[in-house]
Amino acid sequence: MQEASFTPSHAPAPPEPRATLDTIDTDRLVLRPLVESDDAFILQLLNDPSWLRHIGDRGVRTPQQAHDYVRNGPMAMHARHGFGLDAVVLRETGVPIGLCGLIKRDALDDVDLGFAFLPAYRGAGYAREAALAVLRHAGRKLGLQRIVAITVPRNDASIGLLESLGFRFERDLRMPGDPKELRLYACSLETIAGAE
After folding, report:
1. Number of helices and strands (H, E) in the chain?
2. pLDDT over threshold 60, residue 13
3. CA 126, CA 160: separation in Å to the nearest integer?
4. Which domains are seen in the chain, by residue range?
5. Residue 58: is it exposed, middle or buried by C-beta count within 10 angstroms (0-12/13-18/19+)?
6. Mind listing the pLDDT tens digit for each residue in 152-161?
7. Do the beta carbons of residue 121 and residue 45 sit within 8 Å?
8. How far apart (Å, rounded) are the C-alpha atoms in residues 139 and 129?
9. What is the pLDDT of residues 97-114, one digit of tens each?
């Protein structure tokens, strides 16, 4: 009987495991990565007058454009950085009520906190609850030490929320290609523990 010769296999190495996308749970909310089927919710949120006034017109007018926005924006950011804007959904019903999450903008050195909620869910503490959970996640799970946020100067509700979380005004700025004046706020994540 002839012995078989052994030739080492040169098969490609298995792919590296992909980072799982975290969900963040609070008492009333679940923050989860956006998915393409969130297009109807995104279409409604991005055309809300408050979004248009304070954040800007993203030109999303159809379900397909909303689908593309989710895929090319938040989903792509999650794939690149391991974080992005998340859907904020009510724990009891699963209904999406807003967005909250982290954004890495090329024009900013630091990671940026972003949030927006549908009109029916403003003023109930959901934005604070979601933002606080995102900031804690950023410090504990992502190891970030500093987070910034940008807003238009007259967005009093967002400025009030940021200040209540420990953010402080740093400077005025303009983003490349956007003539709108913005205000940059920053927060050390060490201060978040005291923002109960």
Report:
1. 6, 8
2. no
3. 14
4. 24-194 (3.40.630.30)
5. middle
6. 999 999 999 9
7. no
8. 16
9. 999 999 999 999 999 999
